[in-house]
Amino acid sequence: MKKVLLHMFLTLVTVVVFGWMPITAADAQRAATPTSSSGNRVQDGLNDIKEVFPETVVDKGATPQSLAKTIIDYALYLAAIISVLFIIIGGYYYITARGDEAQAKKGRTTLVNALIGLAIVVLSFVIVQVAYRFLIDER
Fold first, then answer.
1. Contacts of 97 (CB under 8 A, 6+ apart)
2. Does the predicted TM-score (pTM) go above 0.70?
């Protein structure tokens, strides 16, 4: 059971980490084609990175409020992923109870608590979005 949960967790982490790093065919082609070499390997590497990750990726007009909102959003996304993971675990316990009332109760409890947690995460996300738009909107 522990191996299955560890495998599911590692798969989830891998999907989350590599899912946020989109690589297009154009990016791969640019990285594979050599650019003009100035003889300085460090500068050439920086120029290659600049082509793949343009300056517009970094928001130079970012405010502390938008940074805080971004951090809160990512924390809420992580909490939602964890809630869904616990829903899966609770369902697994409930399905595999095979008449064992203690394990079925444990599964139901885990499922209910995970659903309550997911509802709290969704409401928190809505509250953060509304509060941010209310406080930052300068109309």
1. 103, 104, 107
2. no
